Amino acid sequence: SQTIHQWPATLVQPVGSPLSLECTVEGTSNPNLYWYRQAAGRGLQLLFYSVGIGQISSEVPQNLSASRPQDRQFILSSKKLLLSDSGFYLCAWSVRQGVNQPQHFGDGTRLSIL
Amino acid sequence: KQEVTQIPAALSVPEGENLVLNCSFTDSAIYNLQWFRQDPGKGLTSLLLIQSSQREQTSGRLNASLDKSSGRSTLYIAASQPGDSATYLCAVGTSNTGKLIFGQGTTLQVKP
Questions:
Q1: What Å distances lie between residue A112 and A22, A60, A64, A84, CA to CA?
Q2: Does residue B88 contact residue B75 with C-beta atoms inside 8 Å?
Q3: pLDDT grade for A42, boundaries at 50, 70 and 90
Q4: Using CA atoms, how far apart are residues A101 and B34, in angstroms rounded to an integer?
Q5: In this structure, are residues B61 and B79 in contact, taking their beta carbons and an 8 Å threshold?
Q6: A50 touches chain B (CB under 8 A)
Q7: pLDDT tens, B33-46?
Q8: pLDDT value at position A62?
């Protein structure tokens, strides 16, 4: 069966520090991968998605970047965190073949910026 | 620009009631509509996916309908239980890359 792992579960970082959140998927190949952010009082916002190694699409201009160094690994990064980067970050995957595939989410990383 | 709205934002019902959660979207050109459940502090769990050519999907006590022409979907929960308490999110699939646009969610509380 397929599983998705995100770490860390919680993170407290000072403003201006770097960030690296990792997401890995097991039990499937060539998945579509997604990073979402859920800010307090707001809905889920798609940040990045990837349809293959090295292929990253950004949905909103922001202080973050994403990379996909391996087929089932998706990394969210920042060089210098801002207060507005606080939130709940969720990684998701879906089967690449076919457009009508459900997305499967990890347990998320709660990021607090001080 | 596609916008997804869920009303009400919160709902409290006694155990055993049948209930309906609403989702509306502004652009009918969608690939699919998905319903998710989110428990506090957790990720999302996929409940149902309705393809754009379908009218409804059922899973156990859950039934989701889709009316593309009116831009509406409903999630029907039969015989609600306290374990159904969670936030329910709907999302529309807007491209062949699987991109989803989410509503803000309806937080459901089922009282014993």
A1: 16, 20, 15, 10
A2: yes
A3: confident
A4: 10
A5: yes
A6: no
A7: 999 999 998 999 99
A8: 80
Q: Check residues B99 and B61 and name the one with the higher pLDDT.
A: B61
Closest by CA position to A65, among listed A55, A57, A74, A76: A76
Q: What gap in Å lies between CA B47 and CA B75, rounded to an integer?
A: 10
Residue-level length of chain B:
112
Which of B31, B43, B104 lies closest to A106 in CB terms? B43
Distances (CA, A) of B112 to B14, B60, B68, B94, B109: 6, 20, 36, 38, 10
Share of chain B above pLDDT 70, in %: 100
Q: Which residues of B touch A47 (CB under 8 A)?
A: none
Residue A71 burial (C-beta neighbours within 10 Å; 0-12, 13-18, 19+): middle
Q: What is the pLDDT of residue B105?
A: 95
Q: CB-based contact (8 Å) between A44 and chain B? A: yes
Structure tokens at B79: 């015989």
Residue A38 has pLDDT above 80, yes or no: yes
CB contact under 8 A, A100 and B89: no
Output the average pLDDT for chain A: 92
How far is residue B80's CA from residue B86's CA, in Å, rounded to a whole number? 12
